[in-house]
Design brief:
The chain is mostly helical. The chain has one domain. The longest helix is centred in the first third of the chain and has 15 residues.
């Protein structure tokens, strides 16, 4: 009988132990290699593991917009015209420039009754927002209104205009036509209200 090579036994034991660690299962039936994710340990790419069935709840823009408009309607309780105005804006959230409306409302003090034409401390914010984010059609419409009748109707804070900046471009184009000789946004509004579907909710606020 040949003598056994006892010098190999420690190495074989280590090898078997290493193989066993990679394939053994825990009490829940998961492999030991998977336990790092169970412990919340990040991988080598430092990216957190996300379950395959995980879902992220994101409030739709329209819902965000309508919630903000409703907040101002609530803050303006007792002021019928302003409550009506915010109710109409709530409907415009779904048909007009939704993101612009949301950003514009963020310029206002949400803790009190405010409208865009009565923004107070929000004037500078609205001016900057509309200067940067208004569409080319909206800017052309605003400039036309501003310079009509000798330019006397140019607003100190152009970003405080109501309704028109938030209408779809197609409706602003229509407003430019149906307004005729109107020199002010208010005159154009009155002349075109019936012709612009997205502005119709504001009719009740007269």
């Amino acid at each position: 009988m040949k003598p056994q090579n006892h010098a190999l036994l420690p190495w074989l034991s280590l090898l078997l132990l290493a193989v066993g660690c990679g394939t053994s299962t825990n009490a829940a039936g998961a492999s030991a290699a998977d336990t790092s994710s169970d412990l919340g340990l990040a991988g080598t790419d430092a990216t957190a593991d996300v379950p395959a069935d995980a879902t992220t709840t994101v409030t739709p823009l329209v819902a965000q917009c309508q919630a903000a408009a409703q907040n101002f309607a609530t803050k303006c309780a007792g002021e019928a015209v302003r409550v009506c105005l915010w109710g109409a804006y709530g409907q415009l959230c779904a048909t007009g420039h939704t993101q612009l409306l949301i950003d514009a409302m963020k310029c206002l003090d949400a803790t009190t009754c405010r409208t865009f034409s009565d923004a107070n401390e929000g004037n500078a914010c609205l001016d900057a927002l509309h200067g940067a984010d208004d569409t080319a059609v909206a800017k052309t419409f605003d400039q036309t209104q501003c310079t009509a009748c000798g330019g006397g109707q140019c607003a100190t804070h152009p970003g405080t205009a109501e309704i028109f900046p938030y209408l779809p471009d197609a409706d602003l184009t229509s407003a430019g036509k149906c307004g005729g000789d109107a020199c002010t946004p208010d005159a154009t509004y009155k002349a075109c209200l019936g012709a612009i579907a997205t502005a119709a909710p504001f009719m009740a606020c007269e």
